[in-house]
Structures are given as structure tokens and as C-alpha cells.
Design goal:
alpha+beta, YaeB-like fold, five-stranded mixed β-sheet, 4 helices, 5 strands
Amino acid sequence: MQSRVDVYEYVNFRMADRRIEFYKTEAGKSPVDEFLLGLPTKAFRKITWVLQIVRSLPRVPAEYLKKLTDTDEIWEVRAQSSRKEIRLLGFWHGGNLIVLTNGFEKKEQKTSPSEIAIAEQRRRDYIRRNPL
């Protein structure tokens, strides 16, 4: 099982061109961190590999990062591991920062409206607390 420090080593990358950050509540909790810590090791490794691709490639294939239609600028990081569809939702803040808001295992064809609503609410909260 990974520790909280391992999650940040693997995922909370900083790079000159693009950064990935986990949304934190006002109380300092990170829902994405908690989700990642609950994943089986194989799924954890796969999603962190995908996040490295998102962070480093100039043009990320839609297989790994895709804008969700009919949302308030919500994007989906996509990974598949052992027939599990792992999703992290988030948004762009400024030109080079992706803030990930929530994670889940996708079980239906369409992304759950409730997961999208959580991402949109957290986006509004983040922008309110971190204006550009």
C-alpha cells in the first residue's frame, strides 16, 4: 500500500510547462489523494503513469485526457487497469496548471452527472480561493 508521501512523489509533479495539483478543501483534505490511496497497487501505478503522460507530453492523446462536453470546463484524466476504468476529473487554472478535483471508478458508459457536479462545485470553490 502506498503512503501519502508516495502519492505526492508520484503524482503532484511540477514541470516548467505543465503542473498537476490536487484540489484541497478549506480544511486541507485532498479527495483525490484519498481516492488514489484506496486503489489497488496495479491501478495506482497505471493512473500515476497516465498522469506523467498528461504532465509531460505537449499534446496529450484523448485516450488519456479529454474535455467533457456540456460541463463547466471539466476535463477527465482516463486510465484503464484490469478492466477497471479509472477517472480523475479536474480543470485548467491559468495556462499550465491542472487541478484534479475528484476520482472514481467509471461503471457506466457516461460519466456520472453527480461526479461532474462535484468537480464543477470544487472548481468554483478553488477559483474563489485562488483567483488568477
